[in-house]
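Progress note, sequence design subtask.
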């Protein structure tokens, strides 16, 4: 404990580990969604294999992601999707509603 407080080798090692954990956790969602390239993915996988706290966070996120996926299977009704699409179109092209053909 005195090494940590005195800034010795142990403190530098803990700081280094904290940065690694921050980096791993910062990329966790991209890793879960398979959005990382192979080198980054392998680095995260290796970190998770060695770091129990980060692996615990990973496990929690996997459970949450699967729960959301399972609970959010319903589609919006067709008429609701149509109304939303119409509103978005009007908001995206506000002048389109003001254009009237010549009489």
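Output:
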């Amino acid at each position: 404990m005195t090494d940590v407080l005195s800034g010795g080798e142990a403190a530098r090692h803990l700081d280094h580990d904290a940065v690694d954990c921050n980096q791993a956790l910062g990329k966790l969602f991209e890793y879960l969604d398979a959005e990382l390239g192979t080198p980054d993915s392998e680095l995260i996988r290796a970190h998770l294999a060695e770091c129990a706290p980060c692996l615990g966070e990973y496990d929690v996120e996997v459970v949450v992601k699967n729960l959301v996926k399972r609970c959010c299977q319903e589609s919006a009704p067709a008429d609701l999707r149509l109304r939303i699409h119409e509103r978005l179109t009007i908001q995206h092209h506000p002048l389109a509603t003001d254009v009237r053909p010549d009489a």
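Confidence is low (pLDDT under 50) at residues 1-19. Work on this subtask will continue into the next period as scheduled.
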